[in-house]
Design goal:
FAD/NAD(P)-binding domain; 3 domains; 12 helices; about 475 residues; about 25% strand; alpha/beta; about 30% helix; single chain; Enolase-like, domain 1; five-stranded parallel β-sheet
Length: about 475
């Protein structure tokens, strides 16, 4: 086969890879985008969008069941599981097709469908033996679900985010392993759609929440809807003819064996780098096999290799993958003119109900970087006006500020409209606003954001700000 010669080769055509391609193409026409699997991005095909479609159906069912609290009588609510999944798949396919159109619009010579691995730092080899000589290479191979040992061998009754959305109808029962972002989003959605759900975790973590008080509040809230044990003891999960039997220690102290139609593994994702032949690059790797890299330039060491997106295991979120792809693509194309790219204020949202949001520095980072030099403001949404009006009055918000300067540092929230309040706070953090400046901003009445103002007022008082600085 004739070897290919390119300036920039990008391995992986997901969100980060496509971002890298667009950025590199601005600086050079010699770019090759290589994909070894299906096109369509994790977000569109098996992540953000299909999960939100399932959540939207669950919200509709939940609202209908709770309409009588507003004096609105709704006949018995029934859920057509096949119709729910049909809409999820139909709309999911629309999002995927939109991505595929973008791929199809690329010049045919700019893309290659093949699995590749490194032969040396400047050469990739396809599974068919074709060589690709690239002056610079961007790794954007994404991530894959992690299956814990207790769940291996469950066969067709084991689900992950990569096949759960292909179910022809809703199951009647589901055991979810992993109370992280995906696990809790899907567990609550399934529960509200009438599925019997149990959620098992290890280590006590819930949706990535760092603050113990907020985590405990979330734990109690979720347990009102479905069984959640974030520090579970599970002895076994065995595949049976019609499902899976899970043997676990119930929170009441009794060992139980319970049958489920399926088990959902939501125990995290791992970078897809093991089969890339990185040992032939000479790059130093971390304990997960990922090359060490500069998170502001995405350059691996001093090499001509860059890494972006979930493959970097830095921050597995779509907006982060987009930014990383752009930075890596630009620097690969401009090499050796390497420039730090903009890394935005950390922002994460979990689309449960109530929602979870984290912004800026988390509690662990604050205790390490600002020990004894920060304060926190608090608000409960249980008696917040607009939240009570909508019967969404559950949750806590904590905001953090720096002693002396009054600089806003970050926040963590479990409560209503967290996706929107999180955005406001991320903008404030990126603009390096002080708590006093934030309180000078307009707050309409009556809105849920008035709860944010209450928390900021509490924080300002605890910061003991000098009136001349306020």
């Amino acid at each position: 086969m004739t070897p290919l010669e390119v300036e920039v080769a990008i391995v992986g055509a997901g969100t980060a890879g496509m971002g890298a391609y667009r950025a590199a193409r601005i600086h050079t026409d010699s770019v090759l985008l290589i994909e070894g699997g299906v096109y369509g991005t994790t977000c569109a095909r098996v992540g953000c969008m299909p999960s939100k479609l399932l959540i939207a159906a669950a919200e509709a069912a939940h609202q209908a069941r709770h309409a009588p609290a507003f004096g609105v009588q709704v006949p018995a609510v029934t859920v057509d599981g096949a119709a729910v999944m049909a809409r999820v798949q139909r709309e999911r396919d629309r999002f995927v097709n939109s991505v595929l159109k973008t791929i199809d619009a690329m010049a045919p010579g700019d893309r290659l469908t093949a699995k590749v691995k490194f032969r040396n730092p400047h050469t990739l080899e396809t599974s068919h033996g074709q060589l690709i000589h690239a002056k610079r290479i961007v790794i954007a191979t994404g991530s894959a679900p992690v299956i814990p040992p207790v769940l291996k061998g469950l066969g067709s009754h084991l689900l992950t985010n990569e096949n759960v959305f292909d179910l022809p109808t809703l199951p009647t029962s589901l055991a979810v392993f992993g109370p992280g972002v995906l696990g809790l989003e899907l567990a609550q959605a399934m529960s509200r759609l009438g599925v019997r759900v149990r959620v098992f975790g290890v280590g006590g973590g819930i949706a990535g929440i760092q603050d113990p008080a907020i985590r405990d509040y979330a734990n109690q809230t979720f347990n009102k809807e479905f069984y959640l044990d974030a520090s579970a003891e599970v002895k076994s999960a065995k595949e049976m003819a019609n499902g899976v039997e899970v043997n676990y220690l119930h929170r009441d102290g009794v060992w139980r064996t319970e049958p489920f139609d399926y088990v959902l593994a939501a125990t995290g994702r791992s970078p897809v780098v093991a089969d890339l032949g990185l040992e032939h690059t000479g790059l130093p790797l971390n304990d997960r096999g990922v090359p060490l890299f500069d998170r502001f330039t995405l350059q691996c060491g001093n090499s001509t290799i860059f890494i972006a997106g979930d493959a970097s295991n830095d921050s597995p979120l779509l907006h982060e993958a987009t930014d990383q792809g752009r930075i890596a693509g630009e620097n690969a194309a401009r090499f050796p003119d390497i420039r730090p790219g903009l890394r935005r204020t950390p922002l994460a949202v979990v689309f449960t109900d109530p929602q979870v949001a984290s912004v800026g520095l988390g509690l662990k980072q604050l205790e390490q970087q600002h020990k004894d030099c920060f304060a926190e403001g608090l608000v409960s949404f249980e008696d917040q006006g607009r939240s009570r009006v909508m019967l969404r009055n559950q949750g806590l918000l904590k905001v953090y500020g720096e002693q002396g300067s009054g600089l806003f540092l970050g926040a963590e929230m479990f409560g209503p409209a967290a996706e929107h309040i999180g955005h406001l706070l991320a903008w404030a953090a990126q603009q390096r606003m002080t708590v006093s400046c934030m309180l000078d901003m307009p707050f309409y009445h009556p809105v849920i954001e008035e709860g944010l103002r209450t928390a900021l007022r509490d924080l300002k008082q605890k910061l003991h700000l000098d009136p001349l600085l306020a």
